[in-house]
């Protein structure tokens, strides 16, 4: 009963809400037949259906259903009919149960001829005998009908609505092509920006230091016979500048493909990230014992063979997410989990901070999204005010 009451409550709220909005739709039908208005209306009801069918509340979809205008109108009329029919059933069952529960104990204060129920129906209440027998029996029947009929009717209505608003194979293919086109453009832009950044780093940093080294060595060569102390000083400065240039060059190379991925694999690289994170971080690679952040390369067996491009995106995604958490979340702990299901690698980075992550404020999530979309992956950010924040990334890693 504990689990059935929330299901009945959600189902009843869903059906009553659908009944009210269906009645409003009939009044506003001339407006709703406009494709743009129908699409927005359908998008809102699709989100309601998805929340009801989901095992846990989900965030609303960002875009309205991508289906044709004809199918939207078909959904509108079918949804109005089913909403009215199913909603009336819910009102009759739940309404009579509530009305019976109210009238039975108060029969003595009600006018003669009052019946135990709403809508003028139900057994007549003529005394305590009928109230405690027929009245209680009627309440039990309508309560059972409410618990038994309302949740499945609500799920059926939600499934019908979701099915009618699901794109066809042709529409899915067209949407897929559009999405891939957008992500490829974003990937090319991101790649161009990355190349410009690398060029700028090399020009302003490493190249400038190499020029300084060459100038010092040239001056030292000219002063070799005349001023040995100056030569020694110039050689020392050239040596120091060479080390600085090498350090900067390593940093540039690390932003292209972290050497640790080649040396230790994805498992070892992520273990190093977890160890070096400013926030205590646990790492779970979906294998027994992999929750220890000191694990090494053998843990990759839980993930299978991962392409190099996917490894790099996974590494940069987790590194950026941990950096964001350290800068903005005020978190005390972070958790990183990777799981592999078929050709899909799922990454979850969770922190117990204050939440409220906003991609529009340049928190690094945009960079993560660009990298992931370039590989045809998906990014989902759940960060309610007060926390926690969870970034979920799914990457295709099939051969």
TrEMBL record:
Question: Which SMART domains does the protein's record reference?
Answer: HATPase_c
Family annotation (CDD domains):
HATPase_UhpB-NarQ-NarX-like (cd16917)
Q: Which GO terms describe its cellular component?
A: membrane
Does this UniProt record's set of keywords contain Ubl conjugation?
Answer: no
Q: Is Phosphoprotein among this UniProt entry's keywords? A: yes
Return the broad EC class. transferase
Give an example GO molecular function: phosphorelay sensor kinase activity
Catalysed reaction equations from the record = ATP + protein L-histidine = ADP + protein N-phospho-L-histidine
Swiss-Prot/TrEMBL keywords: ATP-binding, Kinase, Membrane, Nucleotide-binding, Phosphoprotein, Transferase, Transmembrane, Transmembrane helix, Two-component regulatory system
Q: Membrane spanning segments where?
A: 12-38, 75-108, 128-150
InterPro entries from the UniProt entry: HATPase_C_sf (IPR036890), HATPase_dom (IPR003594), Sensor_HK_TwoCompSys (IPR050482), Sig_transdc_His_kin_sub3_dim/P (IPR011712)
Query: In the Enzyme Commission scheme, what number(s) does this protein have?
Result: 2.7.13.3
Q: Where is the Histidine kinase/HSP90-like ATPase domain?
A: 309-399
Q: Which SUPFAM superfamilies match?
A: ATPase domain of HSP90 chaperone/DNA topoisomerase II/histidine kinase
UniProt name for this protein: histidine kinase
